[in-house]
Amino acid sequence: MRSIFRWPPGWARILRLVPVWAVLALPGLVPSVLAQVSVEQSWDQEYRELAGQLDRLRSSPRALRDRLKAEALDPQALVQSTDVDPLDVVLRRTQALIHYYRRQGVVLSSSLGDYERRLNQLSAASASAPLGDRKALFLQACALRRAIAFANPLLNFDDIVCMLEQPGDQRIIEQARAVWHGHSRGGGPLVIRDFRNKAIPEALLAGVKVASGPWTGRELTGKFSGLELCFDGGELLFAATTGAEVWHLFRFKLATSHLAQLTDGPHDDFDPCQLPSGRIVFTSTRRGGVGRCVLTPQSLTYTLHSMEPNGSDIVCLSFHETNEWAPSVSHDGKLVYTRWDYVDRHWGTAHHFWQCFPDGRDPRNFHGNYPLPWSAMPGDVQPSQYGKEQLVYGRVLPGLFNSRLLS
User: Fold this and answer.
1) For 119-159, how does the pLDDT look when each residue is reduced to its tens digit (9 = 90+)?
2) Residue 341, SS3?
3) What SS3 state is found at 50?
4) How far apart are the first and last CA of the chain?
5) Phi, psi (degrees; rounded to nearest 5) at 125
6) Which CATH entry fits the domain spanning 205-365: 3.40.50.2300, 3.30.1330.60, 1.10.10.10, 2.120.10.30?
7) Most CB within 10 Å of its CB: which of 16, 65, 115, 290?
8) What residues does 270 pair with on adjacent strands?
9) pLDDT band at 23 (very low <50, low <70, confident <90, very high)
10) Residue 241's closest CA among 307, 315, 166?
């Protein structure tokens, strides 16, 4: 049996090393048309992105460069002052990948020796190559990197399941996904068969009708969001819209193509996550309220909820007053998620990493309440001043910079 690996939404940007497929929602065409982007086209885009990063590095102040260096988990992820152009970046990172394999002992030494010999040949050629020939060497380096990456023994599967989300005009505005056009119609879950070689896409919902729930007997042709591969690898959970601009949760069985609707009603339900117990945690507007910054009827507050696998016993896990996203399960069994919490914080930097128990107890900001130096309090107010002098209670008002509310 083939094993299936879940790739998160946005996989087309991450999966650069194989042919990239996208869904194009062309007017008047139903279903959507699958279009292939070649590996070389993806590498060409990467070349432009790296060139832009190098240009910004050369013009950025020293303080910013030092900050990025201090914050990066791996310095190889950054462009560096010693990199002349994108070719240097790829050669350096490919060498780092070989060194990683050697330290971990996960790839045969003979294979690593061959990869390193080929990399050294490219590095030698780059040392004397005229400017006009370096782009061709860049493509060769990307091809070598692809081969080395696919030698990873963790890639012991054939297929990748992913969700194609059709982006809207303002995809980044997740905290008001109903009022802001973050999604367009089209897309849906796909399986990429034989991803190393042919990368054949298979639209899982093509011709499939909902088998249970209020949308029974009809296909899903609206918008799609999120993807969860269940622990047994046999089922998918995702969100989709039906007849109205409301998000509902669905379950799809890969072996039988059985598609079931789990939630219904006027509430938005999305971002499903299966717990080890079998229950499903998700984000929902069911607790009520509107977003603090975007006070419109469409800008609803959504927080963590959970339910049984069949959609019953829906309970609210969080009564937080703004918004929460993307729940997942940590290695120690806790829920981890993103919360928009900007009490005493700047609204734009208050999308923090939170954790709690699976039943919603003990929610905590993983990095602490004030992850300095990026606290949201005005720049001249230090934590030692909170509650003292004239600043009895201070916070940044939504949407306003350097303003205070005093009481």
Assistant:
1) 999 999 999 999 889 999 999 999 999 999 999 999 999 99
2) coil
3) helix
4) 65
5) -65, -35
6) 2.120.10.30
7) 115
8) 283
9) very low
10) 166
